[in-house]
Design a protein that fits this description.
Elements: E1 7-9, E2 21-31, E3 36-41, H1 46-49, E4 55-57, E5 63-72, E6 75-80, H2 86-90, E7 96-100, H3 104-109, H4 115-118, E8 122-125, E9 138-147, E10 152-159, E11 165-172, E12 180-182, E13 187-190
Main location: cytoplasm
Domain Ribosome maturation factor RimM PRC barrel: 116-196
InterPro entries: PRC_barrel-like_sf (IPR011033), PRC_RimM (IPR056792), RimM (IPR011961), RimM_N (IPR002676), RimM_N_sf (IPR036976), Transl_B-barrel_sf (IPR009000)
C-alpha cells in the first residue's frame, strides 16, 4: 500500500450528491515561451492526471485540457489547450486544479484516501525500521496533514513513554518514510531517519 498525496475540497452548495474534488496540482511559473507551465503535483498518479487529453478543473469549474506533459526533477511541465504563449502561461501562476473524486470503491482499490481520513491515526514504527525501534511501537498520532510545495507532510503529535503528549514533528508523506497506511485498523507505519522526529534517534 503506497501513500496517496491527493487532497480534497468540499465544493460549496446544498446538493448532497455533489462529488468532492481532489486537488491534483498547483501551477507554478511559466516554462519557456510557448505556453508551458511548471506544475507541482499533489497526486500519486501524475502520469494519469497529466496524460494528453486529461481534463482538470478549477474550483469554480473552469476546465483545462492537457496537450502534453513531461517530468522535470520534482515537478512536471505541462502544456494546456488554449495556453499558447508566455503571457497566457504566466497568468495561471498559483492556480490550483482538481478532478472529481472517484467513487469510494475505486478509491479503496487504488489505495487512495482523503487527508481527513489520516488525522487521528496512530503512528507506529515500521517493521525493520532504520532506527532499530521495535516493530509496531506506537510513537504518536497524526494531528494534521500539511501541504508543501512538492509534497505533503504529516504533522505528528509525539507521545512519551508515560503516554503524555510531548512535542510535534513533521515527516514527509512519501512511501520511503511512511511505508504503510492502514485506515481500516487506524494506524500508519513510519521509518524516519534519526533526528527527524522528537524523541526518535
Amino acid at each position: 500500500m503506497s501513500p496517496s498525496r491527493s487532497t480534497n475540497h468540499d465544493p460549496q452548495g446544498p446538493d448532497p450528491q455533489q462529488r468532492r474534488l481532489l486537488r491534483v496540482c498547483r501551477i507554478g511559473r511559466a516554462q519557456g515561451l510557448k505556453g508551458e507551465v511548471n506544475v507541482y503535483a499533489y497526486t500519486d498518479e501524475p502520469e494519469r492526471r497529466f496524460a494528453p487529453g486529461s481534463q482538470l478543473q478549477t474550483e469554480d469549474g473552469q476546465v483545462f485540457t492537457v496537450v502534453s506533459s513531461r517530468r522535470f526533477k520534482q515537478r512536471w511541465i505541462v502544456l494546456f489547450k488554449g495556453v499558447e504563449d508566455r503571457n497566457a502561461s504566466e497568468a495561471l501562476n498559483g492556480l490550483e486544479l482538481y478532478v472529481q473524486a472517484d467513487p469510494a470503491e475505486e478509491l479503496a482499490q487504488e489505495d487512495a484516501w482523503y487527508p481527513e481520513d489520516l488525522i487521528g491515526l496512530e503512528v507506529r514504527m515500521a517493521p525493520g525500521n532504520s532506527l532499530g525501534e521495535p516493530s509496531g511501537r506506537a510513537v504518536g498520532h497524526i494531528s494534521d496533514v500539511l501541504d508543501g510545495i512538492a509534497q505533503q507532510q504529516l504533522q505528528i503529535r509525539m507521545t512519551t513513554e508515560e503516554g503524555d503528549d510531548d512535542a510535534e514533528g513533521l515527516i514527509p508523506f512519501v512511501e520511503a518514510l511512511v511505508p504503510q497506511v492502514d485506515i481500516e485498523n487506524g494506524y500508519v507505519a513510519i521509518d524516519p531517519p534519526g533526528g527527524l522526529l522528537p524523541g526518535l534517534g
